[in-house]
Design brief:
The protein is elongated and about 60 Å long. The chain has 10 helices and no strands. The relative contact order is 0.24. By secondary structure, it is an all-alpha fold. About 80% of the residues lie in helices and about 0% in strands.
Length: about 210
Protein backbone atom coordinates (compact mmCIF):
# COMPACT_ATOMS: atom_id res chain seq x y z
CA UNK A 1 0.00 0.00 0.00
CA UNK A 2 1.32 3.49 -0.85
CA UNK A 3 2.34 5.65 2.13
CA UNK A 4 -0.52 7.73 3.57
CA UNK A 5 1.07 11.03 2.57
CA UNK A 6 1.38 9.91 -1.05
CA UNK A 7 -2.15 8.57 -1.04
CA UNK A 8 -3.53 11.89 0.21
CA UNK A 9 -1.41 13.88 -2.24
CA UNK A 10 -2.64 11.71 -5.10
CA UNK A 11 -6.25 12.11 -3.97
CA UNK A 12 -5.83 15.90 -3.87
CA UNK A 13 -4.28 16.00 -7.33
CA UNK A 14 -6.97 13.69 -8.66
CA UNK A 15 -9.68 15.93 -7.22
CA UNK A 16 -8.22 19.02 -8.88
CA UNK A 17 -8.12 17.23 -12.23
CA UNK A 18 -11.61 15.77 -11.93
CA UNK A 19 -13.52 18.88 -10.82
CA UNK A 20 -12.46 20.73 -13.98
CA UNK A 21 -14.98 19.55 -16.62
CA UNK A 22 -13.31 17.41 -19.26
CA UNK A 23 -14.49 14.93 -21.91
CA UNK A 24 -16.16 12.56 -19.44
CA UNK A 25 -18.07 15.30 -17.61
CA UNK A 26 -19.25 17.00 -20.80
CA UNK A 27 -20.30 13.63 -22.21
CA UNK A 28 -22.36 12.88 -19.09
CA UNK A 29 -23.96 16.33 -19.21
CA UNK A 30 -24.85 15.82 -22.86
CA UNK A 31 -26.42 12.45 -22.04
CA UNK A 32 -28.33 13.92 -19.08
CA UNK A 33 -29.79 16.69 -21.23
CA UNK A 34 -30.68 14.37 -24.09
CA UNK A 35 -31.90 11.28 -22.22
CA UNK A 36 -32.28 12.03 -18.52
CA UNK A 37 -31.02 10.88 -15.12
CA UNK A 38 -30.82 7.13 -15.74
CA UNK A 39 -28.78 7.48 -18.93
CA UNK A 40 -26.49 10.02 -17.24
CA UNK A 41 -25.73 7.77 -14.25
CA UNK A 42 -25.28 4.73 -16.48
CA UNK A 43 -22.85 6.77 -18.58
CA UNK A 44 -20.98 7.76 -15.40
CA UNK A 45 -20.63 4.10 -14.47
CA UNK A 46 -19.40 3.27 -17.97
CA UNK A 47 -16.92 6.14 -17.86
CA UNK A 48 -15.61 4.93 -14.51
CA UNK A 49 -15.14 1.37 -15.77
CA UNK A 50 -13.35 2.71 -18.84
CA UNK A 51 -11.05 4.86 -16.73
CA UNK A 52 -10.20 1.97 -14.45
CA UNK A 53 -9.36 -0.13 -17.49
CA UNK A 54 -6.69 2.49 -18.19
CA UNK A 55 -5.40 2.05 -14.63
CA UNK A 56 -5.11 -1.70 -15.19
CA UNK A 57 -3.30 -1.07 -18.47
CA UNK A 58 -0.80 1.23 -16.76
CA UNK A 59 -0.28 -1.25 -13.94
CA UNK A 60 0.50 -3.95 -16.52
CA UNK A 61 2.93 -1.68 -18.37
CA UNK A 62 0.77 -0.90 -21.40
CA UNK A 63 0.42 2.73 -20.30
CA UNK A 64 4.12 3.29 -20.90
CA UNK A 65 3.68 2.43 -24.57
CA UNK A 66 0.75 4.82 -24.92
CA UNK A 67 2.55 7.63 -23.11
CA UNK A 68 5.75 7.28 -25.14
CA UNK A 69 4.29 6.55 -28.57
CA UNK A 70 2.83 9.56 -30.35
CA UNK A 71 1.28 7.27 -32.95
CA UNK A 72 -0.55 5.09 -30.44
CA UNK A 73 -1.68 8.06 -28.37
CA UNK A 74 -2.93 9.96 -31.43
CA UNK A 75 -4.76 6.94 -32.81
CA UNK A 76 -6.55 6.38 -29.50
CA UNK A 77 -7.37 10.06 -29.15
CA UNK A 78 -8.82 10.33 -32.66
CA UNK A 79 -10.84 7.15 -32.21
CA UNK A 80 -12.41 8.60 -29.07
CA UNK A 81 -13.06 11.93 -30.79
CA UNK A 82 -14.71 10.24 -33.77
CA UNK A 83 -16.93 8.21 -31.48
CA UNK A 84 -18.07 11.34 -29.64
CA UNK A 85 -18.95 13.04 -32.92
CA UNK A 86 -20.87 9.93 -34.00
CA UNK A 87 -22.89 9.90 -30.78
CA UNK A 88 -23.56 13.63 -31.12
CA UNK A 89 -24.84 13.31 -34.68
CA UNK A 90 -27.06 10.39 -33.64
CA UNK A 91 -28.48 12.42 -30.74
CA UNK A 92 -29.34 15.30 -33.07
CA UNK A 93 -31.01 12.97 -35.58
CA UNK A 94 -33.12 11.41 -32.82
CA UNK A 95 -34.04 14.60 -30.98
CA UNK A 96 -37.62 14.57 -32.32
CA UNK A 97 -38.19 11.12 -30.81
CA UNK A 98 -37.39 12.20 -27.24
CA UNK A 99 -41.03 12.98 -26.30
CA UNK A 100 -42.07 9.48 -27.46
CA UNK A 101 -39.23 7.94 -25.48
CA UNK A 102 -40.54 9.55 -22.31
CA UNK A 103 -43.95 7.93 -22.80
CA UNK A 104 -42.83 4.39 -23.42
CA UNK A 105 -40.15 3.90 -26.00
CA UNK A 106 -38.76 5.12 -29.28
CA UNK A 107 -35.40 5.31 -31.03
CA UNK A 108 -33.94 7.46 -28.27
CA UNK A 109 -34.73 4.86 -25.60
CA UNK A 110 -31.34 3.18 -25.30
CA UNK A 111 -30.83 -0.03 -23.35
CA UNK A 112 -28.76 0.21 -20.20
CA UNK A 113 -26.03 -2.10 -21.51
CA UNK A 114 -25.69 -0.07 -24.68
CA UNK A 115 -25.49 3.17 -22.73
CA UNK A 116 -22.97 1.59 -20.38
CA UNK A 117 -20.85 0.48 -23.33
CA UNK A 118 -20.91 3.93 -24.90
CA UNK A 119 -19.83 5.50 -21.60
CA UNK A 120 -17.06 2.91 -21.30
CA UNK A 121 -15.76 3.76 -24.79
CA UNK A 122 -15.59 7.45 -23.92
CA UNK A 123 -13.90 6.76 -20.60
CA UNK A 124 -11.22 4.49 -22.00
CA UNK A 125 -10.39 6.94 -24.82
CA UNK A 126 -10.27 10.09 -22.65
CA UNK A 127 -6.93 11.81 -23.50
CA UNK A 128 -6.81 13.72 -20.21
CA UNK A 129 -7.13 10.52 -18.20
CA UNK A 130 -4.66 8.63 -20.37
CA UNK A 131 -1.97 11.26 -19.82
CA UNK A 132 -2.70 11.47 -16.08
CA UNK A 133 -2.50 7.73 -15.50
CA UNK A 134 0.50 7.18 -17.76
CA UNK A 135 2.61 10.15 -16.61
CA UNK A 136 1.40 11.06 -13.10
CA UNK A 137 0.11 7.88 -11.46
CA UNK A 138 3.49 6.05 -11.42
CA UNK A 139 5.09 8.97 -9.57
CA UNK A 140 3.01 8.26 -6.47
CA UNK A 141 4.08 4.63 -6.19
CA UNK A 142 6.64 3.64 -3.57
CA UNK A 143 8.74 1.19 -5.60
CA UNK A 144 10.87 0.34 -2.60
CA UNK A 145 7.80 -1.06 -0.88
CA UNK A 146 7.20 -3.56 -3.70
CA UNK A 147 3.84 -4.66 -5.15
CA UNK A 148 3.99 -1.80 -7.66
CA UNK A 149 1.04 -3.02 -9.73
CA UNK A 150 -1.16 -3.38 -6.65
CA UNK A 151 -0.24 0.13 -5.50
CA UNK A 152 -1.27 1.50 -8.90
CA UNK A 153 -4.56 -0.38 -8.78
CA UNK A 154 -5.28 1.05 -5.33
CA UNK A 155 -4.45 4.60 -6.41
CA UNK A 156 -6.67 4.06 -9.43
CA UNK A 157 -9.55 3.11 -7.15
CA UNK A 158 -9.07 6.40 -5.26
CA UNK A 159 -9.18 8.37 -8.51
CA UNK A 160 -12.25 6.56 -9.80
CA UNK A 161 -14.15 6.88 -6.51
CA UNK A 162 -13.69 10.65 -6.67
CA UNK A 163 -14.61 10.71 -10.37
CA UNK A 164 -17.72 8.60 -9.78
CA UNK A 165 -18.99 11.00 -7.13
CA UNK A 166 -18.12 14.17 -9.06
CA UNK A 167 -19.48 13.01 -12.42
CA UNK A 168 -22.69 11.77 -10.77
CA UNK A 169 -23.28 15.21 -9.28
CA UNK A 170 -22.78 16.81 -12.70
CA UNK A 171 -25.14 14.32 -14.31
CA UNK A 172 -27.86 14.70 -11.68
CA UNK A 173 -27.67 18.49 -11.87
CA UNK A 174 -28.00 18.44 -15.66
CA UNK A 175 -30.85 15.92 -15.51
CA UNK A 176 -32.69 18.11 -13.01
CA UNK A 177 -32.40 21.11 -15.32
CA UNK A 178 -33.78 18.92 -18.10
CA UNK A 179 -37.09 18.62 -16.21
CA UNK A 180 -38.18 22.07 -17.37
CA UNK A 181 -37.79 21.01 -20.99
CA UNK A 182 -39.88 17.85 -20.64
CA UNK A 183 -43.02 19.94 -20.27
CA UNK A 184 -42.78 20.96 -23.92
CA UNK A 185 -42.00 18.66 -26.88
CA UNK A 186 -40.36 21.57 -28.69
CA UNK A 187 -38.15 22.45 -25.76
CA UNK A 188 -37.25 18.79 -25.24
CA UNK A 189 -36.24 18.41 -28.88
CA UNK A 190 -34.16 21.55 -28.48
CA UNK A 191 -32.29 20.21 -25.46
CA UNK A 192 -31.77 16.88 -27.22
CA UNK A 193 -30.13 18.75 -30.08
CA UNK A 194 -28.08 20.79 -27.62
CA UNK A 195 -26.83 17.61 -26.00
CA UNK A 196 -25.83 16.30 -29.42
CA UNK A 197 -24.02 19.51 -30.30
CA UNK A 198 -22.20 19.33 -26.95
CA UNK A 199 -20.87 15.87 -27.79
CA UNK A 200 -19.87 16.93 -31.32
CA UNK A 201 -18.05 19.99 -29.98
CA UNK A 202 -16.37 17.82 -27.39
CA UNK A 203 -15.23 15.37 -30.05
CA UNK A 204 -13.73 18.16 -32.13
CA UNK A 205 -12.00 19.59 -29.05
CA UNK A 206 -10.53 16.22 -28.11
CA UNK A 207 -9.22 15.74 -31.66
CA UNK A 208 -7.65 19.20 -31.75
CA UNK A 209 -5.93 19.14 -28.37
CA UNK A 210 -3.35 17.00 -26.64
CA UNK A 211 0.14 15.93 -27.59
CA UNK A 212 1.52 16.98 -30.95
CA UNK A 213 5.14 15.87 -30.57
Amino acid sequence: MPPTDRLLAFAAMSFLLIVVPGPSVLFVIGRALAQGRRAALTSVLGNTLGAYTLVVAVALGVGTLVERSVLVFTALKLAGAAYLVYLGVKAIRQRRSLPAALTGGGPADHGSLRTLGEGFAVGVANPKTIVFFAAVLPQFVDRGDGHVALQMLLLGLVFNAIALASDSIWGLAAATARGWFTRSPGRLALVGGAGGLTMIGLGVTVAATGRKD
